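hey
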């Protein structure tokens, strides 16, 4: 039987990356005279990757954005963001202890993010977290990305896990919708990057600190999803 698998989103869940994402987005916007995004509004722009951040910034100001210009700005975003890693990005409190706790309990740990795979691996390596994950799957790892459930299911398969013994941890509607579509329980953190409280999207459970993400909780949610009684 495959070991149970815990899959984490990256931005806003494992790592507080907003300051660096915002710096790179505004770097791009300055080159085309689009007003910069205020830090207080960052939650409106993140969650779907750098390309969507750029698109939303243009939409917010009613500016047209063609495919060629988007490709050019995304390349600039990628270059700027990658060059500055890890910048000010840091794991959220309790992340390292949580990953170690699940490793010790026999869980496979993986990452499923809409950040590009190369950027995700680079960031996690810079933060000395990459070796802790059996798979790090980004927006370009497969032909589909969150909220398509195949992104999550593919991540679990690549990590060597089984969807029937898996749980997702995320911070946004995207993560919650993805897990639900894959019929996998999902724990939402309430400190991440979303402009609406995660309770509105009805995750399986909500936590406010990683200390609350216990192995017992994960085990019980997985059992409940498969119709087994909680211990």
């Amino acid at each position: 039987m495959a070991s149970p698998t815990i899959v984490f989103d990256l931005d806003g869940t494992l790592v507080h990356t907003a300051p660096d994402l915002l710096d790179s987005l505004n770097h791009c916007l300055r080159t085309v005279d689009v007003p910069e995004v205020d830090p207080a509004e960052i939650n409106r722009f993140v969650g779907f990757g750098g390309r969507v951040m750029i698109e939303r910034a243009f939409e917010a100001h009613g500016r047209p954005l063609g495919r060629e210009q988007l490709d050019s700005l995304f390349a600039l975003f990628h270059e700027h963001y990658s060059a500055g890693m890890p910048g000010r990005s840091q794991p959220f409190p309790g992340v390292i202890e949580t990953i170690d706790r699940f490793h010790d309990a026999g869980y496979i740990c993986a990452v499923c993010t809409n950040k590009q795979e190369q950027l995700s691996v680079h960031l996690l390596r810079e933060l000395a977290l990459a070796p802790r994950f059996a798979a790090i799957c980004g927006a370009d790892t497969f032909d589909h990305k969150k909220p398509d459930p195949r992104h999550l299911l593919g991540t679990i398969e690549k990590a060597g896990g089984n969807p029937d013994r898996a749980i997702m941890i995320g911070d946004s509607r995207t993560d919650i919708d993805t897990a639900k579509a894959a019929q996998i329980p999902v724990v939402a953190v309430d400190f991440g990057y979303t402009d609406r409280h995660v309770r509105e999207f009805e995750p399986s459970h909500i936590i406010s600190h990683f200390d609350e993400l216990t192995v017992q909780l994960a085990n019980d949610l997985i059992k409940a999803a498969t119709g087994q009684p909680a211990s």
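The helical segments are 18-30, 50-60, 67-83, 95-104, 117-126, 149-159, 173-181, 215-225. The beta strands are 5-8, 15-16, 90-91, 108-112, 135-137, 166-170, 186-189, 205-207.
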